[in-house]
Amino acid sequence: AIIPPPPVDTGKRFALFRQKTVSTGLNTGRAKTGLNERKKLWPDDSWFDVLPDTENCILCTACAAVCQEGAITIADNQFTVDKTKCSGCMSCRDVCFPKAIDVITRAEKNSQPVRYAYFDAHCSSCHLPFMSWQPGQTLCPVCRSRKEKGWL
């Protein structure tokens, strides 16, 4: 003997699927998560800290070129880090061959851009212009490395 299935209550079925047709979506009352949502709610706060090592950095500008968020800018004799724009992708750290930049997780309220001064210089050995952290540098990073190795 075959038992027929119970009748389908179409009223309940309609109530379940009705909310999916609303264009605004279902509001569950939960807060959205993720870095982009936090940045929207608190645009003046930072979630990462970008730390250049001025002892080892040769100011090659690769970190600024690879930063898609625009958190690192190098112009007008200022190396500027805007921590509010940093997404923590680590691209700047990965591209830096002297390993002179680090990105750490650090939340900070009302972050302000950090500016480091650099100086324009001219190499006395190869006669090319370069940027230096110290005023009065006479050798570019390449010539300085060659001199340390005894090649100059």
Structural commentary:
With 152 residues, the protein is an alpha+beta fold. Helices cover 22% and strands 23% of the residues. The protein has helices at residues 10-18, 35-41, 62-66, 91-95, 141-148, and strands spanning 46-52, 72-75, 78-81, 101-108, 114-117, 119-122, 129-132. Strands 2-3-5 form a three-stranded antiparallel beta sheet. A two-stranded antiparallel sheet has the order 1-4. Strand 6 and strand 7 (129-132) form a beta hairpin.
Tell me briefly what this model is:
The chain is of the alpha+beta class and 152 residues long. The chain has helices spanning 10-18, 35-41, 62-66, 91-95, 141-148; strands at residues 46-52, 72-75, 78-81, 101-108, 114-117, 119-122, 129-132.
